[in-house]
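Today's session is about reading a structure prediction critically. Students often jump straight to the picture, but the first step is always the sequence itself: look for stretches that repeat, for charged clusters, for runs of hydrophobic residues. Only then move on to the predicted structure, which in these notes is written as discrete structure tokens rather than atom positions. Here is the chain we will use throughout the hour.
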Amino acid sequence: MTRPTPETLAHSARRARAAADPTVEVDPAVARPAATPAVPAVRPSAPAQVTGAGSLVRSLEALDVDVVFGIPGGAILPAYDPLYDSTVRHILVRHEQGAGHAATGYAQATGKVGVCIATSGPGATNLVTPIADAYMDSVAMVAITGQVARPSIGTDAFQEADIQGITLPITKHNFLVQNAEEIPQVLAEAFHLASSGRPGPVLVDIPKDVLQAQTTFAWPPTLDLPGYRPTLHPHGKQIREAARLMAAARRPVLYVGGGVLKAGATDGLRRLAELTGIPVVTTLMALGAFPDSHQQHLGMPGMHGTVAAVYGLQKADLIVALGARFDDRVTGKLDSFAPDATVVHADIDPAEIGKNRHVDVPIVGDAKHVIDELIAAVTVERSAGRSTDLGDWWTQLDDLRNRYPLGYDEPADGTLSPQYVIKRLGEIVGPDAIFVAGVGQHQMWASQFISYEKPNTWLNSGGLGTMGYAVPAAMGAKVGKPDTVVWAVDGDGCFQMTNQELATCALEGIPVKIAVINNGNLGMVRQWQTLFYNERYSNTELGTHKHRIPDFVKLAEALGCIGLRCENAADVDKTIAAAMEINDAPVVVDFVVGKDAMVWPMVAAGTSNDEIMFARGVRPTFDEDDI
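Below is the predicted structure for this chain, in token form.
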């Protein structure tokens, strides 16, 4: 068995950056857990003689896994025999990529570890994209792959691929199991690694002969993870310094990332915001962490963020980043980002701190503990009479919100507006539903025009930007939350990449609802061609308008779903209502929309956030002393 080392427990570049930054201060009293980490779920089991495959399945049962997504094949086939009698539900997907994204959607919706299974070679390599996607978005996922028998490893055997080596840069850790006795320990360690600290995907690769070998299964195993000690509690000195800066700042902003959702820290975030009166911006990965309707919420920052959110960060004198990573889609041109801001950066991964932006007060710790301790420290500051009147700052921000609200123009040619469709979808369906987006224009419109009031109601592929994410992720979310309405908002391009998983949904009784925003093109690419390539539309027309190939209604019916179509604004509400009435089958709604709609506001790639455009040819105007 490959043992975790400091180099393989996290991406080596991340760890090297953290080690090279002497400003990242970790309190030695809280740097290590008090004891050896516990097995995620302890269900004692007397020793029993089983095969390695039986040990694998029993380990999954002991870890309280209720569902796995996968496809059998030669190398993993031994595991499918004991799975036949298991309490673990197996959902047979139509493509391994669907299994991986379904596991991700399940994990994001439930907060549990998502599990996917594939065979060796092409089965395993088909998981690479969802593994990379989970890595970029810090999703707790365990991928179990079959491998050729140990004597054949390294011989270019049939369906052999070094999936451990292939996925090393995109997993939090991975294992190649060398004997059957190790399986319970490896599975327990994989689940602990995936779900603790900064969550992420873990790969467990098991050779076929190991699955077939006889072994003794006993539970619980002892975890042995030397060097893996995520810091949960922040350093008190850093917290006090951050609170002092928050009390003194005149233009502060709380910059909230997905780490706040991962930590379950949303209640604390609201208390901190309301205690301080500081404006809040939430990234694409953090929508729902703070209610969109809250008066202190400026919206989403970045490339397609609100003018007020982008301006707020640019003009801030203090940025308190919580579970965010200063990625390029938020900062724009990095050397011009928030030039006058002092930065407090709190993250559970020390390698993220200072990676992109210089940090004045680094805080390593879990976002829930960080926020709770900030609340206490800020309360002390305010009790001592140390606080700043933010009235002038809010006057500026409110002025921008009033002058530059999110909006859209109706298409001049009378076609259906995609923004209107998505806005009405959010209003009719309501804030208790889970919305899952693909990648592109529809993703941005869904982030802008649906109001997210509750945590874990918005799922999307943020870091990797994976087309094809929405349908299988929605499937996984619905499996994890069967009593919750789940809508996927997908584009006609994304939808054609993974819609085969609707057959899985139909046969497995997973009634997801899919809104296909069908503009006949690869919309975001077309928008860039319009703006930056002189309207030379090279290879972006899909034919779903001109030729109706495919016909999405007929395709939905062929896949065992209910197919609906809407082509004008007058029918939008009743079409959504009709879809909402269907709860015993998947529903696909083909919303045929105009092809020329664009996502605004926009900061063009590689430019400064100072150059944000409110609409085409319309740059916001600010006061003379502003940007």
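Discussion point for the tutorial: Residues 1-39 have pLDDT under 50 and may be disordered.
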